[in-house]
Write a structure and sequence with these properties.
Elements lengths: L2 E6 L6 H6 L3 E3 L2 E4 L2 E4 L6 H10 L5 E3 L3 H13 L3 E6 L7 H12 L4 E5 L5 H15 L4 H11 L3 E6 L4 H5 L5 H4 L7 E8 L2 E9 L4 H11 L8 E6 L3 H12 L6 E6 L2 H7 L4 E6 L2
Parallel strand pairs: 1-2, 1-6, 6-7, 11-12
Antiparallel strand pairs: 3-4, 3-5, 8-9, 8-13, 9-10, 11-13
């Protein structure tokens, strides 16, 4: 009996990792005025940002239904495998609750689900650890116990061009979202324990790279034994600059680059730049 990992689309796991490790991805949905699209299945990141720039009304997102999870879980169980589901923070979406409902509907002891308490690159970091543990032939109980311990060690921060997308999507209060756009202030958010918090406000896009560099140094992060995730939203040139700045200076073991998908892009907006890793 093998262990199959099931994820939702908001981890933005790369397609090559999904295929290499036979991971089942269940997508959320992005809703524009002209139609709804399955995240990363019917709408790519590049097409999404193109549509976003032309849209008169900001898109919305829809969680995964319990029925979609029932279908995904049942398919895996029918093949004689166990389900290890890792999903975005329950505080940010009802997707985890949908997975939990699907598990109760199927009533199988071979379904184990985890609330990552994170999203995007934070969930990605936890999923990478799950892949490692599965490949080490750990039991599903051992893997779940280890991942539950490691959730608090996920480090994920992102620089945004504006907080208006998070505020419009209800992920930040209006009070939190009041940042002086007229002053060209760029917010830095931290994804921690299922919450998004503004931890810094910097003036000007050009200072973003310097902030990340100083943040790594200030926290004394040892990256020589870590896989570091670098994410961007329609901002590949800035990601390249960040990578060049930190790659040699911090002797990083491995770097994975990824562009945020349509659902994450709906809430972050274009121009986002993020870094994440598991600090164990």
């Amino acid at each position: 009996m093998s262990i199959r990992i099931v994820i939702d689309s908001t981890s933005d796991l790369t397609q090559d990792i999904i295929e290499k490790h036979n991971i089942k991805m269940v997508p959320l949905t992005v809703n524009f005025e002209d139609g709804s699209f399955l995240d990363k299945v019917e709408l790519s990141s590049s097409d999404f940002f193109e549509k976003l720039s032309a849209a008169e009304k900001l898109p919305t997102t829809t969680l995964v239904s319990p029925g979609a999870f029932v279908e995904a879980f049942s398919e895996i169980l029918a093949e004689g495998d166990q389900v290890l589901g890792i999903f975005l923070a329950s505080e940010l979406s009802g997707t985890y609750d949908s997975a939990r409902m699907a598990k109760e509907m199927i009533a199988s002891d071979n379904i184990h689900i985890i609330d990552s308490r994170s999203v995007c690159l934070g969930s990605f970091a936890l999923i990478l650890e799950a892949i490692k543990l599965v490949n080490e032939n750990k039991s599903i109980e051992e893997i779940v116990n280890e991942l539950e311990k490691l959730k608090s060690k996920v480090v994920a921060v992102a620089a945004l061009d504006t907080l208006k997308y998070l505020e419009k999507g209800g992920r930040l209060s209006k009070g939190q979202a009041v940042v002086g756009s007229l002053l060209n202030i760029k917010p830095i958010i931290e994804i921690k324990d299922g919450k998004l918090n503004v931890i810094e406000k910097i003036r000007g896009r050009n200072k973003t790279i310097k902030w990340f560099d100083e943040w790594i140094e200030k926290n004394n992060y040892n990256l020589s034994d870590k896989t570091v995730l670098l994410f961007h939203g329609n901002s590949i040139e800035q990601l390249k600059v960040l990578r060049e700045r930190i790659e040699e200076k911090y002797n990083i073991k491995n770097i994975i680059e990824q562009e945020v998908g349509p659902v994450i892009g709906t809430h972050s907006g274009p121009g986002v730049l993020g870094i994440g890793f598991l600090n164990k």
